[in-house]
Request: fold
Amino acid sequence: MRSGVCSALPIVLLLGFLGCGTKNEARPDASLRSAVVVAIEGDVDSFNPLFAEDITAGEINDLLLPALVSSDFDAKSGQLNYAPLLARSWEYAHQHRDIIFHLVPGARWTDGQPVTARDVQLSFELYGDPEVASVRQASVDNLRPTSGNQDIRRGIEVKDDSTVVFHFVKAYAGQLFDAGLPILPAHIFQERSRKTLRTDPVNKTPVGFGPFTLSRWTALQEIVLQANPESVVPYPAKLSRLIFRVIPDYRTRLAQLESGEVDLVSGLRPEDADRIARESNQVEIISTPGRDYDFLGWNNIDTGTPAGSPGAKPKPHRLFGARNVRQALTMAINREELVHAYLGTHGQVAFGGISPLFRWAYNDSLKPLPYDPQRARLLLEQEGWKDTDGDGILDKDTMRFSFVLKVPAGSQLRTVVATAVQQQLRQIHIDMRIEQVERATFWQDVTARKYDAFLAGFSVPLQMQLEDLWGSDLDKHPFNLTGFRDARIDKILAAAGILSTETDGAALWKEFQKIIQEEQPCTFLYWINNIVAVNRRVHGTHIGVLGTNHRAWEWHIDTVGQAGAASSHKPADAPFASE
Amino acid sequence: MQERALALLKFLARRVLQAIPMLFGLATLVFFVSRLLPGDPASVYISPGIPPGVAEHLRSQFGLDRPLWDQYIAWLSAVLRGEFGFSFAHGAPVATVLLQVFPNTLLLGATAFLIECVLAFALAALAVRRPGSRFDRALSHLTLVVYSLPSFWIGILLLSLFSFTLKIFPSSQMHSVGVEDLGRLAAFGDLLKHLTLPALTVAVPGTAVIARYLRTSMIETMRQEYVVAATGMGLSKGRVFRSWILPNSLGPVISVLGVEIGVLLTGVLVTETLFAWPGVGRFAVMAIFTRDYPMILGCTLLGGVLVIAANILADFIRAWIDPRVRLG
Reply:
């Protein structure tokens, strides 16, 4: 019987050895102290920008395969600014319909081939080819002519190895934005089958020319980038290595941040951000206004009626079809309190559908509808909603004001907010039941309009292109999820789409917000800040509207180890420093 | 003797042949049930700013627009070719992806199984020294409680204590950052550190089960006349234990071990996600969320093969060591 004890002994000793012998070293080798480790929730979906949909994948691809131009967001004006990257300069021609780009001399792919104008041309051929089915296909829509592979060759003209001309069908605000896609190596991609490009192994071993190269990718574990010493676009990264560690569990990401195992974690919850800001002098919290908002979508139209087909006018929804009702719902929900309780200083009440980030377009003369349950009751009464049978729930023509709110599972914030909204609506005698739905199922139901109401989040695009979300043709714009149709909005969207300078549309967008505010097609809840925690040893970050890892080639680390020293993180609104 | 060996081989062959339709049934069931899930792999490309044609193209490229029976036959033929289909999310044959990560799961599972067996044996041996003693009763209650705890709860407890509070063991992944710069021995030590908590998470509930079975089996064996006789003849306790009690107690426990492999696989699924251990379990969970049907099927089939193989092996070993087991 002693054998039992003897068998257990090695295990106990081993655990003792592992546990007591060494403390949990964040970085076992001293040379790694010159690397920065970023914690990410999930693995990247592709190293080919043709197919990468994931945000982190997009940011990494930008570091490996730079675009013609680099963008930065100027928070003072609320606009994107562009600076040279692969293109050292550019000029406009033909009433701004053409842009002539001159490439940086001496740029080479990591396999030694020179980067030429042909690479630019082929890249856009691939982006636009329907057979490739790139997620960025829409970026070539405004190139002349508008369809087919051969056409794009005419839309993007190679003058010589270092000069390429983009011919657009019109001058419009987003020309540089659309031309700013990562460039792919033509000598590798021109011979590949476009039909099977998505699954081609070449996507896993990217050949780039950017400040970093891909050193190693271990699926679901880590992505290791290392500085590319040959890069001239813009220059070799200041860090020796940039490591992305896949850590799916939020608590584990936080624990590793606090223990120093990782340097940067994004997507912090407000309560954790505040705690870390209070307790840690090693970690800095950067909370920047974001482009993400949560809202309550009310189905404006009767489900099942034909939507968007010419001449067909969907019936209004039995509960939410009337403007007064939608206004009442918004006024019955205390959005200030929700922000105060769940976001604190990391968010603000939303309204109007345009982020305050875009200062030139944001209508600051408008204010959110006030929290006024009394007024909400009156508005509902005007629409005929009264509690006639005394059961505590409003009714009208034998129909009770009772509905289901669909909420995607997995978001703690949305779950608690849904519960708070349920209680507040109950106070004006509305019965709302909450149904948590698995994410894919949720989006399938909502895009198919199989819902009465939902709670979800959206991110507004960097370019003021809102047709997809608000266009009245519901077949063409399936992401107008509430089914809101307004001819005035359509006119604004059409007028803004042909402006050559984005800020010329300021008056249009302010009017747009006024209409949305009046009509309340949905109840905007709050804008959510992007909260990032970064170890103070990391300097030179540009965390902000354009992402967490934006311009990571400028990151460097404090080799002396000045924990608690003043931050040198560049605020997101800093003037763009041209290379 | 030769007759018994021949009968054992026939028994093994029969069980293997019986397993084939079981696996076929499992695969068919999972294929059709997975298609009942709402959404598909192209759903991720249904988003503002992405032309609707992209999702359609993807469906066509992966054959998702073909009738379900066509897709089923195509998948079956891929299985027969040993490819198990093509993973949408990973852009590679499922077999290739699984071959890359299965060793990680095997390492975790095998280590956990080893810990289970050793700890359970030690605990049972200690308990049967004095059946009914305070230790024996405490162990009996404790194993019942531990067995009732879900793996993820045990994992969170271990993480909180040993990783977040005491900072003794790492909280996730298989290796530390920069392990490639370490020497072989240091790298192995680093792997062991990362393996400890996930392996314990998987092993703890299994230990409780096996310890309970082994204890009961040992006590029953100790009551047998041949053990009483051996003790009465003045043989040492150790010899009686090694020569009679232990070998005769193992039979029923071996069957439990076979079943335990299946339970262990379920534990690995949860544990790999909690500890970011890059194994089949994590790939399976990701495949479910992204509706990567071929990957879901590949992981399920692999799990099915392992569970069935473990049960066949357990039955075979039991029949081999215990001549009383009928092979018919």
Notes: The two ends of chain A are 75 Å apart (CA to CA). The first strand of chain A starts at residue 35 and ends at 40. DSSP finds 16 helices and 21 strands in chain A.
